[in-house]
Structure formats: C-alpha cells, structure tokens
Amino acid sequence: VLRMNNTIIVRLGDENDIYREKINILASGVCKSILPMSLIHKGNSVVAYYNQSGFRRANSYFELTGQSSLMILDRLLLALEECEQFLIFPEEMVINANTVFVDKGFKTVKLTYIYDKAEVNINKKLLCFINDISQITTPDDRKYLKPIIKTMQAQTISCKQIRFVISKLILDTKKGNCF
Questions:
Q1: Is the CB of residue 39 less than 8 Å from the CB of residue 13?
Q2: Contact, 102 vs 80, CB < 8 A?
Q3: d(CA 161, CA 153)
Q4: What are phi and psi of 103, to 5 degrees?
Q5: What is the DSSP letter of 128?
Q6: How far is CA 20 from CA 17, 27, 68, 83, in A?
Q7: Which of 24, 37, 65, 158 sits at 20 to 30 Å (Cα–Cα) from 139?
Q8: Residues 162, 156: Cα–Cα separation, whole Å
Q9: Which residues contact 121 (CB under 8 A, 6 or more apart)?
Q10: Helical (H) or strand (E) element with 109
C-alpha cells in the first residue's frame, strides 16, 4: 500500500475469473461503499488507485468522542451490508482502521478493497476494529464501546444486531447516560 496526496495505491494481486469479476464490480463504482478506484492491469497483476478525497483514514483521528466512534462503527456496518449486495463479503476483505475511511461529519464510511487471504470471521475483524477505534476514543468515552465488545465476545451476533446495540448507545451518548 502506497499513499500519495489523495490517492492510495494497492497491488490487488493476480487475476483469476472470480477475482476479476469482483474487481470489475468495484471499479465500476456501483458499490458506493468502496472508495472510487481506477485499475491498471500489469500482466496478470492488478493495481488499484483509490481516490480518498473528502475522507480520512479512521486511525488518523485523535480523541474521538463516544458518539463519533459509535457513528463510525455504525456506518462501517452499513457499508459492509452494501458490499454484500455486490457479493463482496467482509470475510474476504482487510478491515481495520487503515482501510476504513470516514468523511468529516462521520456520516459516511468507505472502504478500500484489499483481499484478506486469511478470511477471518467478521466478528473477529469487528472486534479488532473496535479495539483500534477505542485507542483513539477519549478515555471517558470508551465506556460506550465496552458493551459492544462484551456482547460480541459473549456470543456471535449479526451486523444488524450490533447496529441495534449501537443505536441505543448513540441515544445514551446524546442523553449523557453512563453505564
């Protein structure tokens, strides 16, 4: 991965029929949850040029509020749901604070598609992401992420169930409720 100004350059790997179909879908721009990209084919290899204009890597923020952290997580889950509509599954993508991009108002999250050869379970990826975000959330507001972490560690729950928990927690942050 190489970064230049508003462009991220990623070697996506060698093409095969299934992979070629996925990257063509991504490059077409129909999946709005992936950063806009251009592809360059070099032999059997594919290089993606992602345009991150208007977005920042999630890990580039400092001192996020609890509400901002919850909004990023909620929007990430929405983005992953949209990707699944185009047969781009979270298990096959690297999902971390370097590959998740957030707009200024925390209303939109976009992703870079980097193939994850390990194909780790989505719950494990989300737990790691939440832990990453927790590190840049204000110490007092980390309490809003703890119920999600505890719930996910105790049981496997769907993205929709996680979003339900997040929506309740966002309301709590607006009311100033503590746990």
A1: no
A2: no
A3: 14
A4: -80, 170
A5: H
A6: 5, 10, 36, 16
A7: 158
A8: 10
A9: 91
A10: strand 109-111
Nearest Cα residue to 169 out of 77, 33, 87, 71: 71
Give yes or no for a contact between 169 and 83, defined as CB atoms under 8 angstroms apart. no
Residue from 165, 38, 33 nearest 100 by CA: 33
119: its two tokens: 């194909």
Cα–Cα dist 111/35, whole Å: 6
Decide: residue 11, CB within 10 A, 0-12 exposed, 13-18 middle, 19+ buried.
Answer: middle
Instruction: Output the CA–CA distances (angstroms, integers) from residue 44 to 7, 26, 36, 115, in the order listed.
Output: 22, 18, 22, 16
- What number of CA atoms fall less than 13 Å from residue 39's CA on the CB side? 22
CA distances from 157 to 26, 59, 149, 178 (A): 27, 25, 11, 24
* Residue in this structure with the two tokens 């996910």, named with its chain if needed: 152
Per-position pLDDT tens, the chain of length 179: 656 677 888 877 665 555 677 888 888 999 999 999 988 887 777 888 999 999 999 999 888 999 999 999 999 999 999 999 998 999 989 999 999 999 998 999 999 988 888 878 888 999 999 999 999 999 999 999 998 998 888 877 888 888 888 888 888 777 766 54
